[in-house]
């Protein structure tokens, strides 16, 4: 795919999820996102609410990074984030349930978070996007397919590869291709974790990603300019 830096920027959730991040760091993230023209910023829920210009969306995370909390806690966390201005919520599935083959539990918690988000969003008169992080590097191909199906059938809008924090790794082209093949055009596909260069980013889009979660946004976009080089240090 041939993209300009400004076109690639519109795929990007400009991300800052380091636990030591400060409000000053978040303000700098927002300013950089505005400068670079990214689709959104993605921040920890404890940093909400924040002020952003109308064109910039605010994303946050839920049950992050382990996913190993009860569905009602995830739902409450997501709903609070929505009431505090989040336009998008990226939730982590219960990986233990996925590895055990308990897809009823996985689908049930996604549905619970979806309902809690919708209730909070209705109070704002808003529509809020739900992305589901399946931690694809920790799953087999069959588990990736089943996780995508549970996501699709439970009312989410996107399925997402990774938190960027799991020791198994982040996004891979194989996982993105498999996810895209499974859900087709029914869901968006977000690739995140280890995307550090222009080449990485464009390859993920070519594989089927419709959104990218990265922290090395400036370096990645510089890789699409004459003489530019993609950088390191991505989320």
Task: Quickly list its features.
disordered C terminus, schiff base, deoxyribose-phosphate aldolase activity, 235 residues, eight-stranded parallel beta barrel, Aldolase_TIM, alpha/beta, 8 strands, 16% strand, TIM Barrel
Describe the structure.
With 235 residues, the protein is of the alpha/beta class. The protein has one domain: TIM Barrel, CATH 3.20.20.70. It contains 9 helices and 8 strands. Strands 1-2-3-4-5-6-7-8 form an 8-stranded parallel barrel, surrounded by 6 helices. Strand 1, helix 2 and strand 2 form a beta-alpha-beta unit.
The CATH fourth-level homologous superfamily: Aldolase class I
Number of helices: 9
* Span between termini: 23 Å
Average pLDDT over all residues: 95
* Counted beta strands: 8
H-E order? HEHEEHEHHEHEHEHEH
Sheet with the most strands, sense and barrel status = 8 strands, parallel, barrel
Spatial arrangement of strands, main beta sheet: 1-2-3-4-5-6-7-8
- Oligomeric organization of the protein chains: single chain
CATH level 1 class label: Alpha Beta
Which range does the strand content fall in?
A: 15-25%
Helix content: 40-55%
Coarse morphology: globular
Topology readout:
Blueprint: H1 5-9, E1 12-16, H2 23-36, E2 40-43, E3 57-62, H3 71-83, E4 88-92, H4 95-100, H5 103-124, E5 129-133, H6 141-153, E6 158-160, H7 173-183, E7 188-192, H8 198-207, E8 211-214, H9 217-222
Parallel strand pairs: 1-2, 1-8, 2-3, 3-4, 4-5, 5-6, 6-7, 7-8
Helix pairs in contact: 3-5, 5-6, 6-7
């Amino acid at each position: 795919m041939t993209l300009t830096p400004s076109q690639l920027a519109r795929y990007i959730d400009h991300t800052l999820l380091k636990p030591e991040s400060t409000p000053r760091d978040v303000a700098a993230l927002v300013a950089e996102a505005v400068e670079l023209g990214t689709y959104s910023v993605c921040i920890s829920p404890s940093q909400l609410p924040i002020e952003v210009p109308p064109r910039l969306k605010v994303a946050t995370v839920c049950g992050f990074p382990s996913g190993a909390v009860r569905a009602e806690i995830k739902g409450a966390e997501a709903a609070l984030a929505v009431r505090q201005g989040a336009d998008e919520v990226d939730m982590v599935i219960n990986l233990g349930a996925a590895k055990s083959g308990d897809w009823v539990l996985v689908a049930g918690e996604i549905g619970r978070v979806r309902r809690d988000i919708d209730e909070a969003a209705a109070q704002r008169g808003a529509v809020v996007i739900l992305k589901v992080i399946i931690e694809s590097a920790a799953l087999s191909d069959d588990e990736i397919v089943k996780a995508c199906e549970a996501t699709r059938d439970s009312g989410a809008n996107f399925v997402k590869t990774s938190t960027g924090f799991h020791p198994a790794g982040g996004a891979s082209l194989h996982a993105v291709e498999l996810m895209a093949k499974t859900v087709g055009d029914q869901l968006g596909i977000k690739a995140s974790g280890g995307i550090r260069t222009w080449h990485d980013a464009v390859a993920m889009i070519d594989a089927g990603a419709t959104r990218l979660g990265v922290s090395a946004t400036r370096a990645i976009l510089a890789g699409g300019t004459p003489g530019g080089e993609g950088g390191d240090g991505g989320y």
